[in-house]
Amino acid sequence: MDRDISPPPAKRRKFAAQRASRIQTSPLPAPEALPPIDSNVLRIFSWNINGIAPFLQKPITSFFQTSNKKAQGAKDAIPPASLRGFLQRHGWPAMLFLQEVKVATKDTKTQNDVKAAVKSRSPSEMTSGHNGPTYEAHFTLPNDPYNARGLRGNGKVYGVCSILRSDLRKDFDVNIRTVDWDQEGRISVVEVTSTSRKMAIYNIYAVNGTENPYRDPTTGAIRGTRHDRKLEFHRLLMQECMDLEKAGWEVLLAGDMNVAPDARDGYPKLRTFPQQHIVNRADFHEKLLEGKGLNGVDVWRQMHAEEKRYTYFSRGREWGTSCDRVDYFIAGRKAWDDGHIKACGILDSEAERGPSDHVPIWADVELERNDKVEIGA
């Protein structure tokens, strides 16, 4: 096969008019019904959004609607490309992890716009007078001058954003950090501690292996290929998680792993060419899944057996004709064996994909609160 897993765009995307005009402007259909959760369960969503720009601007087609149509639709509509709208549609989850946000470290305006967007009331909130909870947004963005320059050298590449419901801090001790071994903006760690347990939840945008050079982040000297960096990323992530587990933490990884685990996870077939992709997949299993390393659990596969569903859908091909499951949750063995991962799912529809080339995934995690409160209160 000649396609990549989560490939970088071959040409610069034009967000302003061309891309915005393709975004669905009518209200989305009702979201997939998810199982109810109790006050000790945190619902976590993860989504590679392939650039946050469409979520911060009005689609160009909206400027051609009549004022009456705008007013009529504003009562119930939740804009499809809207961070606040996504949170509302899906019942105000505890966390929303975004990958590939494509925001430059120096671009504080966009970062502030995102922070405002997750707090701004949606049209239906304003109409009904029933406001949802507030959220906070935390970015991990690239600061590697050699490996994360972006297509125009502006640093708008990679990057993750962890969006947390503000009331989590009432019930848990919450700390957000990154790691010192990655400068490409690929990892955000949310550490959640209660009186009885502590869990480290990782928001991950894993390295996509290619033959392109990987350079020393300090000197710029070539240190191999992006395939080599991918293997090193696996090793460093494995060691990070194993050290945490030894210190008494439970571990949960979420995000775009850039590896389809096995033949059930690629359509029409799993990518096996060039040979290095087979090597990368085997290394991922050995270090993070069911091997001698972390020995983690692919939550979706464990809960859904032989079911074939996917998370990456190429926008260059008809829906469902070229897809892979590369976004998922990996639970550390303690979190899994103790039964703390309750459910998970994939929102695999064109509507939920929105302007991205990935669809959202979710998982429910049991974590006792310090104080018993209703979710969203």
Automatic annotation (TrEMBL):
UniProt keywords, alphabetically = Hydrolase, Magnesium, Manganese, Metal-binding
Ranges of biased composition (kind: Polar residues): 121-131
What cofactor does this one take? Mg(2+); Mn(2+)
Residues recorded as binding Mg(2+), renumbered to this chain, are 48, 100, 256, 258, 357-358
Cited InterPro entries = AP_endonuc_1, Endo/exonu/phosph_ase_sf, Endo/exonuclease/phosphatase
Q: What is this protein called?
A: DNase I-like protein
One Gene Ontology term of the biological-process aspect is:
base-excision repair
The entry assigns this protein to a family as follows: Belongs to the DNA repair enzymes AP/ExoA family.
- Residue(s) at site: Transition state stabilizer: 258
- Kindly list the residues the record flags as site (Interaction with DNA substrate): 358
Residue numbers annotated as active site: 205, 256 (proton donor/acceptor), 358 (proton acceptor)
A cellular-component GO term for this protein? nucleus
Recall the GO molecular function terms of this protein's record.
DNA-(apurinic or apyrimidinic site) endonuclease activity; double-stranded DNA 3'-5' DNA exonuclease activity; metal ion binding; phosphoric diester hydrolase activity
Q: Where is this region: Disordered?
A: 1-32, 112-138
Where do the Endonuclease/exonuclease/phosphatase domain residues begin and end? 46-358
Site Important for catalytic activity: give positions: 327
> What detail does the entry give on cofactor binding?
Probably binds two magnesium or manganese ions per subunit.
